[in-house]
Amino acid sequence: MASNWKDVLEGQIPPDRSADIETFAGQVELRKQKKVDEKVFAETRLRWGIYGQRYDNGQRYDGVKTQTIVYPAGDLTKGPTTFWDAPGMLRIKIPFGGVNPEQMEVLAQVADEYSDGILHVTTRQDFQLHFVHIEDTPDLMRRLAAVGITSQEACGNTVRNITGCPLAGVCHDEAFDVTPYTKAMAYFLLGHGDTQDFGRKFKTAFSGCEQHACALVNMHDFGLLARTKVVDGETKRGFAVFVGGGLGTVPQQAKLLDSFVSEEEIMPIAQSIARVFARLGEKKNRNRARMKFLVEQVGIEEFRRLVFAERETLSPDIRWTEYLNELPNYKEIPAKQPFSLNGQARPEGFEEWYQTNIYKQRQEGYAVVYINLPLGDMTSMQMFKLADLARKYAGDSVRTTVEQNMVLRWVSESDLPELYSELKAVGLAKPGIGTIVDITSCPGTDTCKLGIASSRGLSGELAEQLTAKMATMHPAVKELKLKVSGCFNSCGQHHVADIGFFGNSRRSGNYLVPHFQVVLGGKWKENGGSFGMAIGAVPSKRVPEVLEAITNRYAGERNEGENFQTWVTRLGKKEIKTMLEPFTKVPDHDVDPSFYTDWGDTREYSLGDIGIGECAGEVVSLFSMEIAKAESNHFEGLVAFDEGNYVKADQSAYRAMLLAAYALVRTRFLALQDEPNKIVDEFRRTFFDTKLFFDPYAGGKFANYLFDRHENPPTKVDADTAQHTLDEAQLFIEACHSAESRVNGSIIGLNN
Fold first, then answer.
1. Tens of pLDDT along 29-57?
2. DSSP-assigned letters across all residues of 126-181
3. 159, 168, 174, 164: which is closest to 215 by C-alpha?
4. Does residue 287 come out as left (phi exceeding 0), alpha (psi in the -120 to 50 range) or beta?
5. Domain containing 597 — which CATH number?
6. Which tens digit of pLDDT belongs to each residue from 202-259?
7. Which of 131, 162, 193 is the last residue of a domain?
8. Of 73, 400, 456, 534, which one's alpha carbon is 20 to 30 angstroms from that of 423?
9. Helix 291-298 × helix 300-311 angle, to 10°
10. What global pTM score does this model have?
11. Which of 113, 87, 149 is nearest to 4 (CA)?
């Protein structure tokens, strides 16, 4: 299948994307042959969106029933011993959540062919595929690249997917449509030289207004909030820029860097922030390696000074502003003309769905339709159907949301009844968007190595129980935000929920019992305006009772118009703790063994193969990352030589030497354009002329291999020529390893 697909897709994949994927494919093969260190390869695959996943649970909860997943390899009680023993997870980057029908069909195809047929929407608007074999990932990436999608830097110590409001461009309250800015920023920072040396991940978001939770700029490393400003009588676009926000174990609100950065300056400011973070951010202690800790350490005033001082050092880049020329031409094309709903016949269930899942656009006659995805999951069949419906009713404008749902935009209001019926036929017309039944959940113990308790299992159970009570539920309770995480890391956003839960465990006698910590009073609105506080832990099996007790008391005791945050503050933590106390008791194992199992798993609870998470991976030296690319290209050259393609073998060997030289240069500089003349010149100046590259025995001999091939490319390549270049490239790569080892101490000193 791999070679066939490469033939079919040839010409559809952008050359730079194709080259990157082929390099990764070479690294996969080298790792398979154990020619690349596992630690280096782990960071490589993470930067391509590939995680190992947990296998000790063996359950998937679909909100209706529990089904057992039989994994293709590994003991379910112990999990696979290495990454190669069983499939993992692939995360696919979707800037601002925007996809078109063609992309949706390819996503459905690869979910069917390479995964378990399930597409999972994340809280960063990505798609995730589980149970993907590492050997299949290069072909999968080619399929995605052919329709303009990538998994590059979806994981690892990189700039993660940039989120944006799913209502951008159609919202009644936005300053302006942030979509083209979000897209431009995503591709400007993707693979940028100044974003490759972070100690941890870097999250970015664009919001169009202050009052709604467009993309939660207050909980991001780098957040941009759309604003306008009148300058000399002319209205100018720009952004309030925030830095240093984040959730995790200890959440922190972002700080205001600048109240107004013009649209022409947001790219260089992003680059400057990245350079400061790369240079001064923590590298060794990953627990303090996020941007928020750097901002906290130096203070926002000093951080602001550093960023704007860095801005003055940057060389101009045409990409900073060239996208602005296209803004006047940016528009979305609806599938149909707008018509009001008026008196069309409405099928059974339509009214309830219409009340929660429809947002009327500011463009009269058009509506946004929310697709409720329980636990963020949809089948490949549902995705195929949604692609058809998008073409028919919406056009190309489909987006995912940070609450793990999807939206169709630009739907004519008159088409809503017919669209509802078609969605209902494939199980995509579930109501309740934005209500308490629309629960956000991380993967938890289903697949995450850090999962402590079953967040998906609990979320599915709560959604089922709450849905049954919706008809009689107090209106104020219906509006509450409910979010669940499997551990303390807040991947399920429990800190910004009205009511949040995160997994932990307690011991009762000789047994472990799954528990959830109760977090109350977070604020979802105002872009994640404030964080809730943990009140106490209760057994997992008591959470539904706890939720009922809290919501019943809120409904009965709240003052007229009083929101949940105000009520929690008024009630006080002491009283809340007293309220939770009766639910904290765990019966003896002999009395009720169900307490010693988790939701969606009939086995006795244990922490299974909980271990080191792969959210960012271990910090690997930048040199190790870059030299691995050189070795991969050299390997490609060897393969080409065996196939008799001597021209490609020669070119791959030359490229390998360039990348090896680049790896050394990158240890001294944050960024350098990937252009042969500049790489060779900088390598000559920094390592050859200074004799830092000189081996005690061979002097600068190996450097001349690069110089000669660069300055005198062969006019004709045969087997002898290709073999010669491949041999020299191998020696040059080894010499770069040696040089890095010899001067590592001085290089580290300079970088710090």
1. 888 888 888 778 888 898 999 988 775 54
2. -EEEEEE-GGGHHHHHHHHHTTT-B-TTSSSSSB-PPEE-TTTTT-SS-SS--HHH
3. 164
4. alpha
5. 3.30.413.10
6. 999 999 998 887 778 888 999 999 999 998 899 999 999 999 998 776 678 899 999 9
7. 162
8. 456
9. 110
10. 0.87
11. 113
* Burial track 213-224 (b if 16+ CB lie within 10 A, e otherwise): bbbbbbbbbbbb
Taking alpha carbons only, the member of 414, 314, 322, 405 closest to residue 367 is: 414
Tell how strand 118-121 and strand 127-132 pair up. antiparallel
Helix (H), strand (E) at residue 267: helix 266-280
Counted domains in the chain: 4
Q: Copy the structure tokens of residue 508.
A: 């009762």
Closest CA to 46 of 293, 286, 393, 354: 286
Q: Is residue 26 located within the same domain as residue 65? A: yes
Q: Do β-strands 482-485 and 440-441 pair in parallel, antiparallel, or remain unpaired? A: parallel
List the CATH number of the domain containing 153.
3.90.480
Range of the domain at 88: 1-162
| Separation CA 435–CA 414 (nearest Å) | 25
Number of H helices, E strands in the chain: 23, 24
Exposure string for 336-364, b = 16+ CB within 10 A, e = fewer = bebeebeeeeeeeebeebbebbbbebeee
Is the same domain home to 508 and 636?
Answer: no
CA triplet 247, 253, 259: central angle to 5 degrees?
A: 135
Question: What distance in Å separates the CA atoms of residue 752 and residue 741, rounded to the nearest whole number?
Answer: 17
Q: Which residues contact 202 (CB under 8 A, 6 or more apart)?
A: 158, 159, 160, 195, 221, 222, 274, 277, 291
Domain membership of residue 310 (yes or no) is no
Tokens of 114: 């390479």
Only one residue has tokens 């790569």, namely: 733
Tell me the per-residue pLDDT of 603-633, one tens digit each, with 9 for 90 and over.
888 766 555 556 655 556 778 788 888 988 9
Query: What angle in degrees, to the nearest 10, is found between the helix axes of 646-666 and 701-711?
Result: 120
